[in-house]
UniProtKB/TrEMBL annotation:
One Pfam short name: Zn_ribbon_8
SMART domains membership: CxxC_CXXC_SSSS
Name under which the protein is recorded: FmdB family transcriptional regulator
Gene3D superfamilies: RNA polymerase ii, chain L (2.20.28.30)
Putative regulatory protein FmdB zinc ribbon domain sequence ranges: 1-42
SUPFAM superfamilies: RNA polymerase subunits
Amino acid sequence: MPVYAYECKSCHHAFDIRQSFDDEALTRCPACGEQTLRKKFGTVGVTFHGSGFYSTDSRGSSSSSGSSQD
């Protein structure tokens, strides 16, 4: 089960909780009782391996574009 981070917009109480994918998102803050609780989303690190992901890895200028020299 994934761990989600929550933060209250009213009192700024932050905590992590383990929830199933099927569980509803929490809305009530356990510290102050207000319904201003929101999920926090962090950044995800992505690494691309292999060829074709960068402009330097693209096909050369001698591709068949339909034009020919006479």
